User: Which sequence fits this backbone?
């Protein structure tokens, strides 16, 4: 099983980053590997979404059930796709800059665990998905700069 763990301190609020991560329909606009994204079901505490991956000649789709805790966390669980395991968590930890003020900065903690359903799928998809998983946080940092301006 592969395990990716990243964290970064940003001058964006937990709310700003939470909104970017939960806006799954916008993923094709800034994730170069995401050909299409669909929200299959909306719930009061999250969504079920399907992402269509197209990168370096590899095309796959996978579905996750995402549980949202507004401005704090997003938990991902595999529904279907080429994985035997896929689960992850985004955490948005407030970093107060001045006492008594709301957080204008945050620490993002991203953790993802995944394994493929077969050796053939792993040989085919793993090199592509490894790169995607390792650049995921960077893509959202760049997106924050596009949407909210550099800070």
Assistant:
């Amino acid at each position: 099983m592969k395990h990716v763990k990243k964290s970064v301190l940003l001058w964006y609020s937990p709310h700003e980053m939470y909104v970017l991560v939960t806006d799954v329909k916008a993923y094709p606009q800034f994730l170069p590997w995401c050909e299409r994204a669909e929200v299959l079901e909306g719930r009061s505490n999250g969504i079920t979404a399907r992402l269509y991956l197209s990168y370096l000649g590899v095309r796959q789709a996978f579905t996750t059930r995402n549980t949202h805790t507004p401005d704090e966390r997003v938990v991902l669980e595999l529904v279907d796709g080429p994985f035997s395991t896929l689960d992850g968590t985004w955490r948005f930890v407030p970093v107060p800059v001045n006492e008594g003020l709301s957080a204008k900065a945050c620490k993002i903690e991203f953790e993802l665990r995944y394994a493929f359903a077969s050796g053939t799928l792993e040989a085919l998809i793993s090199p592509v998905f490894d790169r995607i998983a390792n650049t995921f946080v960077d893509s959202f940092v760049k997106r924050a700069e596009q949407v909210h301006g550099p800070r």
